[in-house]
Automatic annotation (TrEMBL):
Record protein name field: WYL domain-containing protein
Residues covered by the WCX domain: 255-330
Domain of life per record: Bacteria
Annotated Pfam families: WCX (PF25583), WYL (PF13280)
Residue intervals of the WYL domain: 144-217
Gene source species: Acetobacterium fimetarium
Amino acid sequence: MEKTKMKLLRVLDILKETDENHPLTANEICEKLQSYGIEAERKSVCRDINTLKEYYNNESDYGYEIELSDDNRKGYYMCSRSFEDWELKILIDAVWQARFLTEKKSESLAKRLRLLASLESRKVLQNVTPVKSYVKTNKLKVAEHIDMLLIAIRKGRKVKFQYEYTDTNLDRQVKFDGKEYLVNPYSLKWRGDRYYLIGNYDKYDNLSFYRLDRIVNFSITDIPVKPAKEVVGDNPSNKIEEYVAKSLYNFGGEKIHVVLRVKPNMVDELIDYFGENIEFKQNGSDEYDVRVAVNDGDGLYFWLLQYGENVKVVSPVQVREELLKRTQKIKELYAND
């Protein structure tokens, strides 16, 4: 009985390597089974295939869509999979693009993703992904922190950690003389090639971003987490998503509405940062006014300075004044040369 079960599983593994253009006959499957030390007859392999197909036809969660090629002599192939080749390509690229994963970890994940494709597709997926073009870290710290944060969020526990920065000698130092952050973890976001914890610093009543690659001495406490509803109000998941969407360069702050006067060539940039749910009202021959919702913080001013020649703040007054203060400081910095 054990050998029969193992044979069925091996037949399934072999069929997963097939596709419409590369089917296998029952005899060819028998030959492949021999490499696993399993002797089988053509008829028994056909029975195994019919068993796998039967579960699929009965709409079971364990069935597989296996078809005979148009020319029956060419054999069987796996007709449908959990992922299409293009979907696997996107996932593999994301794995290699993630700088917080080591090269070894990325290769391991990419290999497991390729195993979900047919044998020929695996070769193509490997050949079209230039893995050496990506800069990778040598530390697994971020991956470990993601794992621990998922545990903390699932258990509803606060987390404790210190925060690092890099000094002018390129050495990593702990900020604020080793200050410990006690944080209520709510969400994890991958933005701009960095992973962030979105949570509530226990002493305050707002949300903050924390870069996972800068977190050290991380631990899960036994202290119950403060419910997100107490921090952001009803529908906390939606409120957190909105907070993240309105945070330029991952800086938090109070939500405000800003009216910007922009050049026509700024449309794509505005959509990239604020989404498509914005309206442009013409103001003059070649300028438009647009009202956007954003968090009032450093991220907003970094963005405004980046596009200073093409964007003018119309309102509110306090944003205009703060932007002018920052530009004046830049001017003074160069005036002393």
